Amino acid sequence: MSCHNYCEDVPPPPGTRALLSLGLKYCVRYPRPTNNINSSLNRLENDVRRIFTFRNKQEEDNNYIPQLYIRSDHIFKPLKDDGKEIEDALTLFRSTISAEQRRYRRPRSSNLHPLQWRLIKLKSNNYFIVIEADKNLGACILPLDVYTKRAITEHLGDTSVYKRLSKEEARELMEYTLQRYQVWINKYRYCLSKAEVTVLFRMSLKAHKDPWKMRPIVCCAGTTLNCLSRWLDYHFQRLKPFIPSYIKDGEALLNDLDNLGQLPTNARLFTADANSMYTNINTTHAIAVISEWLDNLPLDEEHGLSDFPLEAVKSAMNFVMKYNIFEFGDLYFHQLIGTAMGTSCACIWATIYFAVHEEFLLTKYSIELLRYKRFIDDMFGIWNGSDERFAEFQADINNFGDLTWGDITIGPVVNFLDSTIIIT
User: Fold this and answer.
1) Which of 141, 148, 191, 367 is spaced 20 to 30 Å from 156 by Cα?
2) Cβ(162)–Cβ(335) under 8 Å?
3) Which run of H or E residues covers position 8?
């Protein structure tokens, strides 16, 4: 795993490169186990009480959607009456296990692993910040003030995209959002859990770009609005069969190309990257074109979509995309345009948005496009036409809302989704 150093004036602490090269998910194991079994026993007891509490509850047929359930931290109280026998058994089990565990308890060494010392020193150093690189290219370390300045100059300082709010304005807008959220719940009768968690702004670093830039990420996990976003994501995912360009990943593309057969001698490969796709999707335009696209879909029993909640989905789109309020340090912002990366439905939202325009592209260039696939903001195709016609194609892909495409490459060899594809 790579470690990217962007510290120009002050070098990172010794050993930082070796530490971060292990990856941001690397865990330093203690020399010996902690010998603390209380958390495991608490989980066991809570699971037993939960199962006993719901033992006679029957789930509604075909009403369980795993993606829409949120992990609960609810603590079940000790059982009474007909559950007293189970409580006695749990008490006996805890005391027996604890007694057996004490027999084998040994003192832990107070010596820390060298990597642990490096972690402690790095964590206590407020001059640096460690973030992930874009495209899974490892870890990056840079001065915290550089990170903060880049957030403002590259993203949050753009007043056409982000509106700065005072703390009081942010609180009032969030309260209004919660009220709208409850109205949506009452109107469409869907029970979604509430969670009072603050939405946070952070960034990853595009280490593969020269000069390097930052990718904005709005962390919505666990928030009230993201409950609705997860619901929206679930129903949008059901529409993937209506997106001809959709591919799950690079392996899916390679499997598709394996069945392609012999290509014409003039065929060429091409790729393109969307320019800041999420923030350049005009929200008003996206809601309008996606709503029209939804209205024209065959949402019937033949396609397994007779239960598709069309009006609720269109209403939820407006709600999720227009009320993104977040904080960065002690600053508060309301995103005015674009899709907040981090919200659950962001990827499929962006996928569907440009798929609306692709219906026009696939029709107009049906002869030249031997293959056309897209993974969110990465485009791949096989072109069998003139340069003049390809220039026209480029103009057309850049003629949809505010979204534009760059880094367009065409030739016998292209790199796409960590693969090098060659016409032989």
Assistant:
1) 141
2) yes
3) none
Query: Does a cis peptide bond (omega within 30 degrees of 0) precede residue 11?
Result: no
Spatial distance between the Cα atoms of 11 and 128, rounded to a whole number of angstroms: 10
Is the pLDDT at 236 greater than 50? The verdict is: yes
DSSP 35: -
Helix (H, G, I), strand (E, B) or coil at 126: coil
Give 274's contacts (C-beta < 8 A, 6+ positions apart): 280, 354, 377, 378, 379, 403, 404, 405, 406
Cα separation, 39 vs 41, in Å, equals: 5
Can you name the residues that pair with 140 across neighbouring β-strands?
4, 131
Cα distance between residue 393 and residue 410, in whole Å: 12
Q: Tokens in use for 214? A: 């930052």
Residue owning tokens 């962001």 = 346
With beta carbons less than 8 A apart as the criterion, state whether 345 and 320 touch.
Answer: yes
pLDDT in tens, 150-193: 999 999 999 988 999 999 999 898 888 888 877 777 776 544 44
Phi, psi of 421 (to 5 degrees): -110, 130
Q: Is 320 exposed, middle or buried (0-12, 13-18, 19+ CB in 10 A)?
A: buried
